C-alpha cells in the first residue's frame, strides 16, 4: 500500500473508534439506573 492508502485506513479506524465510543455513551444514557448511579457518584464528591 502506498502512503495515502495507509493514511486513509488509519483515519477510518480512528473515525470508527470515535463512533463506537459515542454510540456506547449514548446507549448508557438510555439506562435510568446508570444515570442515577452517575449522579450519586458525582454528588458524593462534594
Unreliable spans are none
Average pLDDT taken over every residue: 89
Number of helices: 2
Biggest beta sheet attributes: none
Q: Please give the radius of gyration in angstroms.
A: 18 Å
Give the overall silhouette: elongated
Count the E strands: 0
Number of separate domains: 1
Task: Give the N-to-C terminal Cα separation.
Answer: 54 Å
* Proportion of residues in extended strands: under 5%
Helix content: over 70%
The succession of helices and strands, N to C, reads: HH
Structural class: mainly alpha
Topology:
Elements: H1 3-29, H2 32-44
Written overview of the protein:
With 46 residues, this protein is mainly alpha-helical. It has one domain (3-44). It is built from 2 helices and no strands. The chain has helices at 3-29, 32-44. The chain is elongated.
Primary descriptors:
46 residues, 87% helix, mainly alpha, single chain, elongated, 2 helices
Question: Short summary of the structure?
Answer:
With 46 residues, the protein is mainly alpha-helical. It has helices spanning 3-29, 32-44. The radius of gyration is 18 Å and the shape is elongated.
Amino acid at each position: 500500500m502506498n502512503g495515502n492508502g495507509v493514511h486513509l485506513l488509519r483515519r477510518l479506524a480512528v473515525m470508527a473508534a470515535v463512533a463506537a465510543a459515542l454510540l456506547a455513551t449514548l446507549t448508557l444514557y438510555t439506562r435510568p439506573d446508570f444515570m442515577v448511579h452517575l449522579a450519586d457518584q458525582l454528588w458524593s464528591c462534594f
